[in-house]
Amino acid sequence: MYTRRDRLFVAFLVIPSFVLLGAVVIYPFIYNLILSFGNMNLTRIRDWQLVGVRQYVKILTEPTQPDFYEIFLKTVIWTVVNVVFHVVLGVFLALLLNQKLRGKAVYRTLLIIPWAIPQYIVALTWRGMFNYEYGAINVILTKYLNLPAVEWLKSPTEAFLACILTNIWLGFPFMMVVALGALQSIPSELYEAADIDGATWYHKLTRVTLPLIRPVMIPAVTLGIIWTFNSLNIVWLVTNTGEPSDKTHILVSFVYKAAFNFYNFSQAAALSIFIFVILLALSLFFMRRSRATEAAY
Amino acid sequence: MKPALLILAFVWTFFSFGGCSRSTADDSRRIVIWHQMRPDERDLLQRQIDRYMKSHPGTTVVQLYMETETLRSGFVTGSIAGQGPDLVYGPSDPIGVYEVTKTIVPLENLVPPGFLADFDSSGQVWYKGHLYQLADKIGNHLALVYNKKYVTRPPATDQELISLCRRIQDKYGYTANRPNVYGLAWNYTEPFFFIPFYTGFGGWVFDADGLTPSLDNPSMVRALNYVRELRDVYKIIPGESDYEIADALFKDGKTAMLINGDWSWAGYREKGIDIGVAPLPLIVETGRWCAPMTSPKGYSVNANVRKEKMPLVMDVLEYLLSKENQAETARALNTAPTRHSVYRDSDIRDNEILQNSLLQIQRGRPMPVVPEMRAIWDAMRPSYQAVMGGAKTPEQAARDMQHLAERKIRDMME
Q: Is B27-139+295-366 in CATH node 3.60.110.10?
């Protein structure tokens, strides 16, 4: 039975966190929501008014530059391709590192490097590497593989591909570390029992390893989806703010451009709400369908 | 629970939020400047600031570098939120945006009487009847920078430029069909660097009213075609070139000439390159000079500066714009000063780079400070890049630029 004083003490302990959460999450969210129903732009930055769902209608019905549906499709492609590669590469490398290997610590350290370098530096370094004439990628393609040079940053598809390649390189170590942790927690007795039953490598992978790392990987994949969907840095920096022709934007980079380059704050707020709803629905759907919260053992 | 524990909880809670409030104790003697100066400019500014602080004990002046776009958007959003620096430094083109958002204050009644008398009119940015910016440099303009190792006499016309570039490229040979030394390079992802070609073919970004976009016309089509021809037909510029690539090519001696702004020239000299600066050439076909946009670079005062702090802010501003500091800056960075008295300095008068720079300024056109200029840049950039990437024809690009500029202005004003 808690006394009044106990409750008061608990309140004192949690109030700072609640106030902080309110200040940095709840208040901005509500403000953003209100803003999305307004008309705040460059000329109405101080005297904006509520105008209903005009921004939402505009985004969905009027062609924006670039087109909203095109950006949305790109965002989906960006997220799916990146997360698939992050997970496949991460789990594959984790399986390798989970074997008895000489110099395992060295490999592990080397493979974590992409994750350890600040994203800003990674993005700008890769941007340099994708340069048509002097970039390392084209030098390798032309000099060592006898392939034609690719105009990575000049055409929209190649520029978008350049962003994806950079982000794959940047993102797989996280999945690898998570998968490695999950693999190391699988009791060896299960593999011994499988060996006695005559299970092949493939059977052990599909019947023991993958089901047992699933509870750890599903939240990691969900996080990966949210992070990748909202990953501004790579697209923004590798393509130099959406170049060429604003054709490489994903939703979040376009939101940033709408707000801080075009000063179209209400439009950016409405786009942010779209992103929030999409991610919320995606996360709920993913968690329910994958039954991630169910116990594995 | 013991009362001591409760007190501890109170104290903890109190200190948890201590960091949330902004300390204002020393703010009255602390001046913050946001700018987008390059490293050599920053070093010089710091030396000038250090001298000020030495002669004004108790006053702190802090400079903070930001990338141009971040500076503009950060200043607007910060100032609207009641924050931001005391002084914001940069080219004059966002003054219209700052005025519309009421984030800067008029200066005409804040500077001492007679202070403006020594300033050239191009160094004072007046907008809607008020003085919003006082500049320490005029220009911020593009010109032709050449490496004297490759170029003895700079070209005066575009035809001379093309033939000179070809001669240089032939002289230094090719590797895998790529010149070992390019004739010319510039950042052709940014429309600011395209403007001299547009003006060279007779175009200007606004109609005579200074507000209606003027981008869909034969001058635009011809200029876009021309830039593409320089790359694809004459092959005198790199296949791909943004600011960093063009800058690196020039610094590495891999391009003989470069189109770049006055902010960059001192850096090339520091790198040990024997540079010359010449006005951009004449387009023979039209008989017009390639005219870059020019703009003063200077200081504006944040609308959030408190009344009691304003005298100190103005004192720092007057110091930074003083004759001595401007002369020092002009000598060190080859930038054109804004005070008439500085031009009487023999070092400035006899400086060849500075004199050519002034000639280029005379041939340039002032950059409009209206907020609509923002829409022009944002409308030009995608289509210009699409033309260079082969995704649009110049005709289509011109139409799209005009259409997008008009829509952006409509959106901005709605």
A: no
Assigned CATH for B142-291+371-413: 3.40.190.10
- CB B57, CB B112: distance < 8 Å: no
Task: Report whether A260 contacts A203 (CB < 8 A).
Answer: no
Size of interface A-B (CB pairs under 8 A): 112
Chain A nearest-CA distance from B382, in A, is 3
Mutate to test the interface with B, among A133, A254, A266 (most CBs of B within 10 A): A133
| Ordered strands of the B255-261 beta sheet | B182-185, B255-261, B142-147, B275-278
Of B77, B176, B412, the CB nearest to A43: B412
pLDDT over 80 at A76, yes or no: yes
The reply to whether residue B385 touches residue A244, judged by beta carbons under 8 angstroms, is yes
Can the peptide bond before residue B91 be classed as cis, meaning omega within 30 degrees of 0?
A: no
- The pTM (predicted TM-score) of the whole model is 0.80
CB contact under 8 A, B382 and A245: yes
Rounded average pLDDT over A272-286 = 89
CATH number belonging to domain A53-290: 1.10.3720.10
| Å between B387 CA and nearest CA of chain A | 9
The tens digit of pLDDT for each residue in B59-95 reads: 999 999 998 888 998 999 899 989 999 999 999 989 9
Where in chain B are all domains bearing CATH 3.40.190.10?
27-139+295-366, 142-291+371-413
CA distance B31 to B60: 6
Q: Can you give the pLDDT at residue B126?
A: 94
Higher pLDDT, B251 or B20: B251
Does B69 sit within 8 Å of A245, measured CB to CB? no
At B291 the pLDDT is 96
Q: Which residues of A touch B101 (CB under 8 A)?
A: 42, 45-46, 263
Q: Which residues of A65-92 are buried (b: 16+ CB within 10 A; e: fewer)?
A: bbebeebbebbeebbebbbebbbebbbe
Q: Which residues of A touch B (CB under 8 A)?
A: 3, 5-6, 8-9, 12-13, 15-16, 19, 23, 39, 41-43, 45-46, 65, 128, 131-134, 142, 151, 153-156, 240-241, 243-247, 259-264
Q: Which of B231, B232, B223, B267 is nearest to B247 (CA)?
A: B267
Listed residue (B410, B398, B414, B405) closest to B377, CA to CA: B405
Give residue B220's pLDDT. 97
**Number of residues assigned to chain A:** 297
Query: Mind listing the pLDDT tens digit for each residue in B32-68?
Result: 999 999 888 999 999 999 999 999 999 999 999 998 8
> Residue B18 pLDDT more than 70?
no
| Backbone φ/ψ region at B156: left (φ over 0), alpha (ψ -120 to 50), beta | alpha
B324: tokens are 């001595």
pLDDT band with cut points at 50, 70 and 90 for residue B218: very high
| pLDDT tier at B15, thresholds 50, 70, 90 | very low
pLDDT score for A293 = 57
Question: Residue B414 and residue A156: Cβ atoms within 8 Å?
Answer: no
Joined together, the tokens standing for residue A226 give 């949210």
Q: Which residues contact A202 (CB under 8 A, 6 or more apart)?
A: none
Residue B104 burial (CB count, 10 A): 28
Distance CA A187, CA B195 (A): 68
**Residues facing residue B184 across a β-bridge:** B257
Phi, psi of B105, rounded to the nearest 5 degrees: -115, 150
Best of B67, B97, B240 to disrupt the A interface (most A CBs within 10 Å) is B240
**CA dist., res. B345 & res. B343, Å (int):** 5
**Domain limits of chain A?**
53-290
**Tokens coding A242:** 């959406």
